[in-house]
Write a structure and sequence with these properties.
434 Repressor (Amino-terminal Domain); mainly alpha; MutR family transcriptional regulator; DNA binding; TPR-like_helical_dom_sf; elongated
Length: about 280
């Protein structure tokens, strides 16, 4: 177990113990010393299977469920750290660096066949393709990430993030199927849905994009989430207004929401979007 997993295990154990109403002294009695549990919860030591099993059993908590949650939590933290580092390259539309990073991450996955390597490589390729749609994807990575997403039974934050970031590698039919599942299970954020609508718009799947935007209208948008509200209105205008009106409304939106805040680079990106992609026939 790596340092990150060790920390997550201790934090999860602490949460379970509190929820079950056990003090450290009560839980440790007859099994371990209280100081050992304190150190485990603090992330300074790890417990063996033989020590952890009776503690979880005493709290009526499945050992399998515990390990699954620790692994998911660790994967989420590692993926978030990767995204934080990759975001600046993507936001700058630095295509040469994006392509280089994608190739390097593909090579890592082909060597170690690790899950983290897979989702990082797939994300890098997908985001690169979102900048340059002619970019040739890696068939192995595309196949493996597709297989993974098709097998997902529970859509947590990690799974939704992977789907959202890797959607440029998926067929429109698969995106549609997964999106419906996410809406039904109420596991997806408004921004994630808007990003999927954006992808469908770029693929000229206008009816599906319109259906997704309509679903977003049924969600309660956070009034303080300016990015989500902006992109929702931007996409809604494109999909429901005629081209001339949509262009005027969106330019007003860009000037009032982005340029007024000094986000000139982001404003320019959305202006280019309207010239780069065809307007639907409304």
């Amino acid at each position: 177990m790596d340092r990150l997993s060790k920390t997550n295990a201790g934090q999860l154990f602490h949460k379970i113990r509190n929820n079950r109403g056990f003090s450290v002294a009560q839980l440790s009695s007859g099994i371990l010393s209280p100081s050992t549990i304190n150190k485990f919860e603090a992330g300074t030591i790890q417990l063996s299977f033989f020590n952890l099993a009776p503690l979880l059993q005493k709290m009526d908590y499945s050992l399998d469920d515990f390990y699954n949650q620790v692994q998911t939590s660790s994967a989420s933290a590692s993926y978030r750290k990767f995204l934080d580092g990759f975001e600046s390259i993507y936001q700058e539309n630095d295509l040469p660096t994006l392509k280089k990073a994608s190739q390097e991450l593909c090579a890592v996955y082909e060597k170690d066949q690790n899950f983290q390597s897979l989702i990082q490589a797939a994300t890098a390729i997908s985001l690169t393709k979102s900048v340059d749609q002619s970019y040739e994807t890696n068939p192995l990575i595309t196949q493996r990430i597709t297989e993974y997403l098709l097998k997902v039974n529970y859509w947590g934050k990690l799974e939704v993030a992977i789907f959202n970031n890797c959607s440029f590698l998926l067929t429109s039919q698969m995106v549609k199927t997964i999106t419906k599942e996410l809406i039904y299970s109420q596991s997806v954020s408004a921004l994630a849905l808007i990003n999927v609508a954006d992808l469908m718009y770029q693929r000229q799947e206008y009816q599906l994009a319109k259906e997704i935007v309509k679903q977003v209208e049924n969600l309660r948008l956070n009034q303080n989430d300016l990015v989500t509200r902006f992109k929702f209105l931007f996409m809604k205008n494109l999909l429901t207004l005629d081209a001339s009106t949509a262009r005027v409304r969106n330019q007003q939106l860009i000037d009032g929401s982005l340029r007024s805040l000094g986000s000139n680079s982001l404003a320019s990106t959305f202006e280019v979007y309207m010239t780069k992609h065809s307007f639907p026939n409304t």
